[in-house]
Specification:
Elements (H helix, E strand, L loop, with lengths): L5 E5 L6 H12 L7 E3 L10 H10 L3 E2 L3 H13 L8 H19 L7 H10 L2 H6 L4 E3 L3 E4 L11 H4 L10 E4 L8 E3 L3 E3 L9 E8 L4 E9 L7
Helix pairs in contact: 3-4, 4-5
Length: 228
């Protein structure tokens, strides 16, 4: 394998820092791997969302935006508004795993502290990092996104859909829908979300971006400390 054409792509993280650190060490010891990417959903549900975001920043991991990051951005934008009826997006996010992310930043799960959470998120620079995440990364024969690219899809579907992706000239690598094992069809797609936060495992694939092939699968069993 040529390191210039070889990348690693990690599945959905959801605040599982201990499992991520173990998997990343294995990737770091892999002499053929160049840059490391992630299919998004860094945050929510698990205990250590703040630590996962910081880890990605410090180690130059390149995530795409996931639906949980999308929910967070919308929640923060709406929480800055004065009209109470606009808080529904904040509440939707909070009750879909966001309360654990809030706790990782300010050690409070009270929704009344949601604005304080937003202030801390921005103070750390994590909000700008999350807001700047791209929808996809495109290589010669590989596309990385959070959900698959579907017929008639748009910027919303590439984050949220759970349908079978359309056939492209590139190998699609995505997550979003948790599975017991990766779902990989050669020269078509690979769903690498193996439900770490649901007590399964975290998966990374070693990918040749010129050939559009998965050369190796590396997995780490979830660490119970990540969930609590």
């Amino acid at each position: 394998m040529n390191p210039e054409n070889t990348i690693a792509v990690i599945g959905d993280l959801h605040g599982c820092i201990n499992t991520l650190e173990k998997l990343y060490k294995t990737l770091s010891d892999h002499r053929d791997v160049g840059e490391v990417y992630c299919v998004g959903d860094l945050i929510d549900r698990g205990k250590f969302s703040k630590e996962v975001v910081e880890f990605c920043i410090q180690n130059s991991v390149k995530p795409v935006i996931g639906n949980h990051e999308d929910m967070l951005i919308k929640a923060m934008e709406k929480s800055d508004k004065l009209l109470s009826f606009l808080y529904k997006d904040s509440e939707h996010y909070y009750y879909n795993g966001g309360r654990e992310t809030q706790y990782s930043y300010i050690q409070s799960r009270l929704f009344s502290n949601f604005k304080k959470f937003g202030e801390e998120l921005k103070r750390t620079g994590h909000y700008d990092f999350i807001k700047g995440l791209p929808l996809k990364y495109t290589f010669k024969k590989v596309i990385i996104s959070h959900a698959g690219i579907i017929e008639g899809g748009d910027d919303v579907s590439i984050i949220w859909n759970r349908d079978t992706p359309k056939k492209l000239d590139e190998l699609q690598i995505f997550g979003h829908t948790p599975l017991k094992e990766i779902d990989h069809i050669k020269n078509y797609y690979a769903n690498i979300d193996t439900g770490c936060v649901y007590k399964n495992k975290l998966t990374a694939v070693i990918v040749d971006t010129v050939k559009g092939t998965i050369e190796e699968i590396i997995q780490e069993k979830f660490d119970p400390e990540d969930i609590g």
